[in-house]
């Protein structure tokens, strides 16, 4: 132990005598270790930590899917949900839910809330216990006839409600007496029975359609068997029985799907399948490839940092050969010498690790500030126990990576050569080859990261240049959740939006205003996917065709700048006239339904939702216009074909308004709020934001990936350039006498310059060749994040390679200029002295 303490003191004293060297090494290690700790903390929170539910490995999400491989998975209808419950044996329970905007009125100002409606057993299935109060009970379920729900003369029975922890704190100040209080939700009395835990959130995949930021939860008042089988609206979660595997459960669902296809024509037509996924896997599926790619990028930065430090340590060890040889001559064994060198490396790595954790903490704060809500559990990212253990492991690995080779090299000196005054020529040929090899590895790894950043950058640029089918500039958007109980009559809801539109249009600076359900890039598309087809289409083909349904008020297309291809837009009379219903379609639906023909005034068959009995039925409508295609779900993918209905066709759809105010979109906010309050003070104006923010949010995930990998690539480029510079500088120092001799015999400065730069270029080109081969494989990890460019895009590969070669040439040029300035006389004097 005493010898170990002596070695530690010696190491600390040694580094204190070389502050510049120590600072460079520590900074390099802090960058390498810190970048890895930061990205692991993200991956740990998102990928590795189990969902915060009881026995989360047994939770599964269930989706219906068309047999057509190109069709997206869909939500589940009420009757299908009942079949799941009645026809399966491997599941404990099934729970269903959906979420929609609502209002809270009464005490305090009216406020929009995200309301979750679920079966009474949702929290039992998830294994979540309220923080205070109780969970829903079967007695809380009070089924209401759907027809009575639309009758303003039928009072609705009071319901029970669970509050989110955030709403409890923000609106009610965490009041202890909240239990038993009656709230006015959508105009209906609701009794608070519990408050959910602070960390509770429903976690769902990005394409689920259901919002996850739920403020209040209520029990579904509609019996599942009153819903049409064609209407899919439920997100379904279930818990497998103890000991049941996912594969066994999927086999049972496959048998059920076959039974349903045989029993129901609607499922036979669509070749319906049932898809079962682990809940955790479903939630992180879209992020897994990019996070693994970022983990790999962090690993590359660590390897480059270690290679750089190893080079510095080799240079340092070369200058210590005489010291080590003397210690060996005095009786220090090779094991003791290796331990000394590794201890010195460990000290550097440990201190660099502390700096790395500090950098990681700052990086995590930056990541959290970048969060747009698109990344699940990003708010859970922190430096906790597992992250600290990872940091410790990274410190130990780094110490071995950069310390082992110099330790073995230094601890095996030739005593004769080392004690000679000029014996080793600063480390010898083998040491030079090792340093050069490390630089080649640095360049190769840097090239992989730079190509990845280049591909993401081109993808991001391509997404920014995508035409979304609408103009987002100068458009203010806001949602208007009408209190359901107050606006139960369909005509009252339609009239409210028509009157509001007229008031908004009259405001100074407003060009046009109109609403839609849902707004492009707002989410919630999964709730509004139904069948369509031209007149005379077969039932089978009709059920296979799927389109996005939208309900728009007059002025919406003009406010959003959506192109009119033929015919006309929806107008006010379409929302008031009781004659034959009309629709506007997008050009993609027109192309598929009537290729090469004008669809205006043709009959289209669509699904009509009958409010009197909650049934779906095919209905013929007249096409009055064709508009341009709008990217609704994301900028990266073409949307489904779309049908736009007058809002009166489904007046209970929550409207989001768009107001075009050229040059002053934010300036009309106060006026908009004033006009809404003048119409009805119980209607909140919520989600006030520019349309451009939705477009920016659609770029969030690619921006997140691009930012991180660009940081890693920039660090890698800097470290690789420093590595080239260090090796060439050291080479110039070794060859000073040779260069002096060449110049004394007439060598021109240009030839000396070329000689040195050529050495750096050989290292760079070797690294580029290896890096290109590696990048060809590695970039496939980010293929799912790319748009408008392939993972092996030759232009990106070529341009990044040329850029890296240019940077390494510049890094070689600086020490080459130093070589040209060598004084031949001094060099020759040194050679003979």
Question: Which stretches of 5+ consecutive residues score pLDDT under 50?
Answer: 415-429
- Class based on secondary structure composition and strand pairing: alpha+beta
Mean pLDDT: 83
Major β-sheet, in short?
6 strands, mixed, barrel
Estimated radius of gyration? 34 Å
Major sheet strand order:
3-4-9-6-8-7
Overall geometric form: elongated
Per DSSP, what share of the residues sits in E-state strands of 2 or more residues? 15-25%
Q: Give the count of helical stretches.
A: 26
Helix content: 40-55%
Walk me through what this model shows:
The protein has 833 residues and is α+β, with helices and mostly antiparallel strands. The protein is built from 26 helices and 22 strands. The strands form 2 sheets. Strands 3-4-9-6-8-7 form a 6-stranded mixed barrel. A 6-stranded mixed beta barrel has the order 14-15-20-17-19-18. A hairpin with a 5-residue loop joins strand 3 and strand 4. Helix 10 (288-319) packs parallel to helix 22. It is elongated. The model is unreliable at 415-429 (pLDDT under 50).
